[in-house]
Each structure stands twice: as C-alpha cells, then as structure tokens.
Amino acid sequence: MQRKVRSLLIGTVVFMMIFITACSSKSSNEEQGSGTNSGDDVIKIGLLASLTGPLEAYGNQTVRGFELGIDYATDGTKEVAGKKIEVIVEDTETQADVAVQKATRLLEEEGVDIIVGSSSSGDTLAVLPLMEEYEKVMIVEPAVADSITGANWNEYIFRTGRSSSQDAIAGAQAIADEGVKIATLAPDYAFGRDGVAAFKTAAEELGADIVTEEYADPAAVDFTSNIQRIIDAKPDYLFVIWAGSNSPWSQIADMKVQDKGIKISTGAPDIAALKTMEAIVGMEGFTVYHHTLPDNEVNNWLVEEHQKQFNGEMPDLFTPGGMSAAIAAVEALKKSEGDTSGSTLIGVMEGMSFETPKGTMTFREEDHQALQTMYSITLENVDGFDYPVPVLKRELTPEETAPPIQN
Questions:
Q1: Is residue 404 a part of any domain in this protein?
Q2: CA distances to 140, 316, 348, 361, 379 from 355, in Å
Q3: What is the pLDDT of residues 246-302, one digit of tens each?
Q4: Are residues 336 and 228 in the same domain?
Q5: Are 107 and 171 contained in the same domain?
Q6: Does a structural domain hold residue 406?
Q7: Are residues 260 and 222 in contact, defined by beta-carbon separation less than 8 angstroms?
Q8: Given this model, what pLDDT does residue 74 score?
Q9: What's the structural domain count of the chain?
Q10: Is the Cβ–Cβ distance between 79 and 146 less than 8 Å?
Q11: Which residues face 90 on adjacent strands?
Q12: Cα separations in angstroms, 102 against 59, 91, 134, 369, 393
C-alpha cells in the first residue's frame, strides 16, 4: 500500500514519529498481509483516549460511554452482523507521539477495523494521516479542533464529537445580537485561539461587536491583567473559553466583573468544573450536554444504566459522546452487513443518521461532521444538586449549529 505521510506542522518530533511509523508499517504489511483482523468472526475497534494526564477525566467518560453504547446498540450481545465486537482501549497519555505509537500498534499488531478517539485534538491530528494510509475509518470523539474536519481531514475521518465552530455558534446564539459588545478570554494555544476565531465570526454575523480578545497562558494561575483589560473595554458580555482545573472563575468573581455590569457567558463544562462556578450563577451560555437536558429514550437509558453500573453516578459531559460514537459504529456495520473495509463504510456512513443521547445526529456528506443538537442555558442553583446546573433556555437545532464546511 502506498503510504502518504503529511506533516501536520505540530512539531518535528511528531512529524518524525509519523514518518518512522509509516515506514515501519509498510514493511510489516508486506510481510504480514493486509493488516486486517485475525478472524472473520470478530470486528475489532481500537479506542484511543487520555486515561492519564490533564484530560484523564474526559478520557474515562468517553470510554464509559463507548462501552455502554456498544451494549445499547447491540441489545447487550456485543455482536453485529453475526460477528463479535472486541474493543481495545489504548491510553494516549495526551501526547501526540504516543497517540501515533498506540494507533500504529492497533492497526499493525491488533489489526483493528475501526479506530475511535481521541480526547485531545493534538493526539487526533497526529493520527489522521494513518487512517488514510491504512484505509481504515476513524470516528473522532471528542476532539474539537476545526482542522480535524477541515484542513487536515481525509475521507476516512468521521466525527461524532462537536467542532470548535459548533461550540462557537452555540455560544454566539446564546448572547450575540445587534450592537451587543463582547470581550473574550481564552487560553493562548490552538484550542483557545481557534475557538475565539470561530466565536467572533458567528457573533459578528449576528450583529455583535468583539471589543477585545484576551489570551492567557494555559498554565496561568493569575488572570488579573487579562481581567482588568476586559473591565477597561466595558463590554456587555465576557465570553470565556477554558479547559483545565486552573480556571479564571474565582478571580472573575474576586474582581467583581459582574458587579461592573459585565455579564459572564461560557460553555457549561463537566460536573467537576461546574462545582467551581458558584460565583457566576445566573450566567447565560451554552452546553454540549448535561444529563437533565435531553428528553429522549436513548438518554433515559444512558442515565439509568450509568447509575446502575457506576454506583449511582450520573453520565458526565463526554459520556454521551462515547455512546454516540459506539452507536454510529454499530449502525454503520449493520448497514454494511459486517463489511469493515474503509470504502464500504464510507459509502454507508456519508449522510447516515442515527439516534444518540442528544437526539438524532447526521454525518454531513461533505466533511463527515455530525450535525447535532446543542443547548442554550442559564446556570442556576437547583434543588437536589450540590453544584450549579445548566437549565435549558432552548434547544439549538443541528441546522442552527451546523459549522461551515472547511475541508
């Protein structure tokens, strides 16, 4: 198989790792054959996730959701088209070079038919070229970088996770309007800058004015100068994009941003982070998921089964995404009658709709991005919860939050 190795411009080390693994993969394939699974009665799915490192919680949520999704989609049999499904989980450690190593091992040694993942956009971007080289489908979940279904996309890539642009459009829908002045605060790396760029485009299309953009060190613990510049700009809203435990919420409260007439808006995060957001109760924003928001049979099953299997715990922000990826894989394999070849799966998955905890998702034919429901919310204290809860203002339809085609 001819190998195509493309630099993703994410660093010399990652480039060389992709090059070396691609070359070694070619040699292995020549010796061992096509690299397909070891038996026609088994379908192997490799799941890449951050099970250690800063995104460990997200990775664990995805794995839980994926395993529950396989159970749901197969009625507990873990079989499709008469074949057993075997899931092999690998920890990327949130390092792109490790993700390439693990993905190569899954493809070469395990002979997986489909890859799912990963928690990190950097990990995922590093793995994308391998899928084209091996002609295997990858279902991306939950990495958000626009370039995954944009500049770095190839036809073997499908995404059940939402993109940065979908987040941005949902955020803009929640607060932007003609004449509204908005400031932004985000971490100074691709996640933050891409998110702000997409939000700015969506907000300005709705008539809003972005009066200042602040970017902070991703490892920062002191946001004083950033917040002061935002206060000086006198916006109507501060829209915050952040991921990680070193959040700016306490300093935003300490500097009395809301007392100065500036409303806070953000994407409501996972439960652990919601517990740190008491200071901004009342904020208007959006969320990808909270278990109280969707009203459908799949989500009802997820909530009930998750509590049964995990000591009463509720599914969290990335659990439904893992479940959605599993459902998409099983539905595609049903339609292909168990044929795992990349070309066949591409044919059945393009335009395919499937039911998830967030309602109906559809893989858009042009870029294979799943169009999906998002939620416009306010953050409120609710009886029975020990943290502020996203309360539904309205569902944002898949059509409303459809991102631009960028590939």
A1: no
A2: 17, 18, 16, 6, 27
A3: 789 889 989 999 999 999 999 999 999 899 888 889 989 999 999 999 999 999 999
A4: no
A5: no
A6: no
A7: no
A8: 98
A9: 2
A10: no
A11: 48
A12: 15, 8, 14, 24, 42
Q: How crowded is the C-beta side of 134, counted as CA atoms within 13 Å?
A: 35
* 7 occurs within a structural domain: no
Domain that includes residue 190, residue range: 165-287+374-396
Q: Which of 96, 115, 98 is nearest to 107 (CA)?
A: 115
Residue 188 within any structural domain of the chain? yes
Distance of CA 354 to the CA centre of its chain: 18
3-class secondary structure per residue, the chain:
CCCCCCCCCCCHHHHHHHHHHHHHHHHHHHHHCCCCCCCCCEEEEEEEECCCCCCHHHHHHHHHHHHHHHHHHCCCCCEECCEEEEEEEEECCCCHHHHHHHHHHHHHHHCCCEEECCCCHHHHHHHHHHHHHHCCEEEECCCCCHHHCCCCCCCCEEECCCCHHHHHHHHHHHHCCCCCEEEEEEECCHHHHHHHHHHHHHHHHCCCEEEEEEEECCCCCCCHHHHHHHHHHCCCEEEECCCCCCCCHHHHHHCCCHHHCCEEEEEECCHHHHCCCHHHCCCEEEECCCCCCCCCHHHHHHHHHHHHHCCCCCCCCCHHHHHHHHHHHHHHHHHCCCCCCHHHHHHHHCCCEEEECCEEEEECCCCCEEECCEEEEEEECCCCCCCCEEEEEEEECCCCCCCCCCC
Full-model pTM: 0.85
257 and 334 fall within a common domain: no
Q: Are residues 77 and 224 in the same domain?
A: no
Residue 260 sits in the same domain as residue 388: yes
Q: What is the CATH number of the domain that holds 220?
A: 3.40.50.2300
* Residue 36 reports pLDDT greater than 80: no
66 and 214 share a domain? Answer: no
- Please give the mean pLDDT across all residues of the chain: 90
pLDDT (tens digit per residue) in 394-405: 999 999 999 999
pLDDT tens digits, one per residue of 358-379: 999 999 999 999 999 999 999 9
Q: Is residue 4's pLDDT more than 70?
A: no
User: What residue type is assigned to position 379 of the chain?
Assistant: L
Would you place residue 177 in the very low, low, confident or very high pLDDT band (cuts 50, 70, 90)? very high
Considering the domain architecture, whether residues 231 and 158 belong to the same structural domain is answered as no
Same domain, 156 and 183: no
